[in-house]
Amino acid sequence: MVAPAPEAAPLAPVVFFDGECPLCNRSVAFLARHDRAAKLRFAHIQGRFAQANLDPALRDVGVDGTVLLLEPGGRISQRSAAVLRALGHASPRWRWLDRLAGSPAIVRVLDVLYAFVARNRDRWFGRHATCPLPDPSFRARFLD
User: Fold this and answer.
1) Hey, is 144 helix, strand or coil?
2) Which of 3, 47, 68, 126 has a CA-to-CA distance to 25 between 20 and 30 Å?
3) Is residue 136 included in any domain, yes or no?
4) How far is the C-alpha of 10 from the C-alpha of 41, rounded, in Å?
5) Domain-embedded: residue 90
6) The domain containing residue 124 runs over which residues?
7) How many domains does the chain have?
8) Is 144 within a domain?
9) 126 burial level (CB within 10 Å; 0-12, 13-18, 19+)
10) For residues 126-134, average pLDDT
């Protein structure tokens, strides 16, 4: 994993997602609704916060539409591991998913499924011309 810039030490886990992808936006809304303790923060991978805090290679949404999770201490998870860890932060009943993210065998299998969905997401869900505004109920949790 590529370490973030020194100024990036977040106080809360940050989920970076493709803001132009309707599937990604729905996924973030799902996380925000279930994160009742408001532990997670969110940022578009195309935004200023991502530009300032992530290596350019990590910000390339390309075909695989990478979801990233930047945790306090600088740990970065990608793709299915990021999704599992984010779900683990969102709800106490899903903490066990965080442990699954630590299993390389499980992550490899889930990354195959992740890649399949990512390759087809634009065809299945379309694409926004720009990053839409977040839902007002969790707008304050967006970093840019």
Assistant:
1) coil
2) 3
3) no
4) 9
5) yes
6) 9-129
7) 1
8) no
9) exposed
10) 62
Residues 124, 142, 16, 112, CA torsion sign:
negative
The pLDDT confidence band at residue 10, using thresholds 50, 70 and 90, is: confident
Question: How many Cα atoms occupy the beta-carbon half-sphere of 123 within 13 Å?
Answer: 6
- Distance, CA of 37 to CA of 17 (rounded, Å): 20
* Whether this model's pTM surpasses 0.70: yes
In a domain, 137, yes or no: no
Task: Report H helices in the chain.
Answer: 22-34, 48-53, 79-90, 95-100, 104-125
- What letter represents residue 137's amino acid? S
Task: Write out pLDDT tens, residues 111-129.
Answer: 999 889 888 877 777 666 6
Q: For residue range 17-75, what is the model confidence (pLDDT) as tens digits?
A: 987 778 888 889 899 999 999 999 999 888 899 998 888 888 776 656 678 999 998 89
CA distance 68 to 16: 5
Q: How far is residue 101's CA from residue 7's CA, in Å, rounded to a whole number?
A: 26
Q: Which CATH number characterizes residue 86's domain?
A: 3.40.30
